Amino acid sequence: YDLPVGSLPNGIIADKKGFVWIVGSDSNLYKFDSRLDKMDSVYFISDKEFKPKGSIMGWAIIQDKDEMILLSQSGSKPLWRFDSINEKFTSYLTSAAPFQMKLDEKNGNIWFTTLGGNTIGVIQKIIGFNSEIDYKITEFEVGNDSFPSGLFLENDNIWVAQVVGNKLLRFKIVNDRDMISIEKTFEISNDSKTDVHSPTDIFVAGNEVWFAEHGTSTISQYNLDTNQVKRFPTSAN
Questions:
Q1: Residue 143 to residue 36: CA distance in whole angstroms
Q2: 147 and 128 in contact (C-beta within 8 Å)?
Q3: pLDDT (tens digit, 9 = 90+) per residue, 128-177?
Q4: Cβ proximity of 138 and 111 under 8 Å
Q5: pTM value?
């Protein structure tokens, strides 16, 4: 399917109503109707509080349990929320540009990494004045010059890949009423017997931790039982 010339699409999701949402590098959010095989709507990313100077390179996109669309932009703030019913954008400032986002299906919280901010954050829905939905954003430091990129939610744990820190970290999510904190419980790094090379994304399945390595063009598998790594090249180089 063709998108407009110059859209340079990045993040993509499909919702339960049959619409596909795509965020592009041209400051636009695209709504594609998969039932009719045609573009439904195009929305320019902006709001009254934050009017971008130049184009927004849309990056990650996710939909929460209230069917709100949240999207990030590469290299700069803020985080954006789009209300598809009212067709309205709202901006939320974070310490640095959010990079990747994942939805916690149990409680509706959204976790994100800030590639240049050395933090991971959580977005919690709160009920504001006149029963309006708003968000509370909390961030946690995960190491200087670590550049957290990929993340994965597993039960009450959050796994994080640090592309510059060359580490894979596991944090336990601690919920104390409305307060959330994290505690580091596991680490895979170059300081151990296992080399990790610029990990950009991570996926956990049982006792296996899969991660993409930018520095070596490999997809790798770490076994939590044996502490062994298998690497699968994706390039002849």
A1: 47
A2: no
A3: 777 777 788 999 999 888 899 999 999 899 999 999 989 999 999 998 87
A4: no
A5: 0.88
